[in-house]
Design goal:
Helix content is 72%, strand content 0%. By secondary structure, the chain is an all-alpha fold. The longest helix is centred in the N-terminal third of the chain and has 29 residues, at 9-37.
Length: 139
Amino acid sequence: MSQALGAPRAVRVAGLLVGLQGLAGVVLVLALLVRALDGAPKPGNVFGEAAYFAVLTAGVLAAAIGLLRGKRWARSPAVVVEILLLGVAWYTLGPSGRWLIGSLAAIYCLAVLVLLFSTHARAWVLGIGPYDDSADQPG
């Protein structure tokens, strides 16, 4: 009886990259809180914005931790985050005219998506091939 393999390296690297995005979200939330406490014109609005981004950041960090721990459920939320951030990169490239920042953000998101859709990552999430854990279940 063979033991199913854990998450492939591509999934763990993607988890690390998504985790860095989550840490960027934490920095944004902290910056918003400092701004609200430092005398923003409408601190209630800034606190609300900080709370909104805190919830989003918690979801991103949960997906990152799930990928790093080899949890299959975490792949779908990570894919959604990357697709949404590709939209942000597109806006940064187009209407904002920030070609360098937008290009780097798009490349980062595409790298995560490539990792999450690699052959081994797909086999892992589907539980096929060396990632088949049906043999581990009591019969």
